[in-house]
Every structure is written in structure tokens, then in C-alpha cells.
Amino acid sequence: MMGSTHALTGWCAGLALAPAIGAGSVHQALAFAATTAGFALLPDLDHPHARASKLLGPITGLVCWLLRHTSAALYKVTKGPRDERGRGSHRHLSHTLLFAIGLGAATTYGTRAGGWYVVAGVVLFALLLAADALGDWLLLVAGGGVVWWALTASAAAELSQLTGWLGIAVAVGCFVHCLGDALTESGCPFLFPVPIAGETWYELRPPSFLRFRTGKGVEKFLVVPVFTVLAVLLVPGAWPGLVGLFAEPTVTAGG
Q1: Nearest Cα to 172, choosing from 3, 71, 37?
Q2: Average pLDDT of the residues in 184-210
Q3: Cα–Cα dist 198/3, whole Å
Q4: How far is the first Cα of the chain from the last one, in angstroms, to the nearest whole number?
Q5: Rg for the chain (alpha carbons), in Å?
Q6: In this structure, what DSSP letter does residue 194 have?
Q7: Residues 177-203: what's their mean pLDDT?
Q8: Do residues 124 and 177 lie in contact, with contact meaning Cβ atoms separated by under 8 Å?
Q9: How far apart are CA 169 and CA 34, in angstroms?
Q10: What is the pTM of this model?
Q11: How far apart are CA 190 and CA 205, in angstroms?
Q12: Would you give the distance in Å from CA 230 to the centre of its chain?
């Protein structure tokens, strides 16, 4: 799945989930969704040529190197008798539910320990990831959003309320990435280490007629347009606003 699609699906998942975890204000919902969108790209840090791996130069490059080697070492000692003979460095450790939960738990601990400063750092990193996939225009929009937030709310107080919740956004973003990859022809081993059919890294995928190839027609002309529309409609207040905009004015008696 393309990076832009991962980011869009992560954004939509974040907006849909935000009310359920208590991110009640528009500011909090957008910060939560931006985090989910960004971290829906993070699992691809296990590939040296991925945009996420090049985002911060040597910093993300080092993380990529560590993740690839850790994944390969884990694959070597855990692969089942029917697992592939590959190295296990790409689409393995970072593409598992275990990784998503672990990174989410680490984020929860970190934000609770560091407060709103750490929350702001996580959201900023997620925005950089999402902007790298969707385009620099997102940074301009985000910059305007920060100014708007600062003028209409106490940003520090609202960010503090996201402490702990942001771990959920990180985990959901990683999970959405895995779910998206599972719909492609390559599949995704996100149930590791549950053994299935002799494979510890069993690649889950739907029936062949429901799969699509990355970057081809189904993704470009169906998946992306649908989630682009949802990305707008799921913003808090967007749907009632659109309905009110196109609704016929009510005529009162004698008016």
C-alpha cells in the first residue's frame, strides 16, 4: 500500500476513534488523528528506501538499521518449518500486532512521564511523517492549525489531556498500516508469534478477489478517493456543517 494511502486510512481511523477515547474537542481530535496518520507510516521504517527511513537523515536511518537487524535476528530464531527462507528484515517485526502494542505502551509511559512536552513531540513527529507522504501542504495547514489552537484554546492544557491516550493513537496507526498491507497481494504477518499452518510469521491476506496490488488501479481510483472524502467528513462538525450549508432554509409563517 502506498504511503499516502496509509496516512489517509490512519487519519480516518484516528478521527473515528477520537470520541471513543475521550478526545472531545476539535483540537484534541485533530492532534489524535494526526498522530494516527503519522504512525500509520512508521512500520515501513524497516526498509532503507522508505520515505520514513529518510525523514530525519541519519537519525531515522539508524532506527531503520536497528529495526531491520532486530527483526532479522528475531526471525532467525523464531521462524517455523514452513516460513520463507528470506532474511525477515522487511515486513516482519514492525508489521505485527505485538510491535503496535509495544510501541503504544512505550508511548503511553513516555507521555505520562514527560507530560505535554513529550505529547507535543510525538504529535510533531507524526505530522512530519504524514507530511512526507501527503505533501508539504500539510505542514502549512498544520502550522495554521497550531496558531488557531493557540488563539482559541489553552494548547498546553489540552495536550496534557492527551497524555496516555496518545499511546492508543500510535498503536492504532501501526495496526492500520498492517491491516492495509494485509489487503495487498503480499499479505502481512501481524499475528506473530501465533503459529498458523507451520508458520510463525504467517502472512494474513483476504481471498484473492479482495486483494489489490500496491499503487495500481483499485488503490488509486477507489481506495484513495473514498478515504479522501472520509478524511474530511470525519472531522468533528464537518458533516453537520455540510448538511446545514446545503439544507433549504426554513420558511416561517408570515415570513
Answers
A1: 37
A2: 88
A3: 31
A4: 55
A5: 20
A6: S
A7: 90
A8: no
A9: 9
A10: 0.86
A11: 10
A12: 15
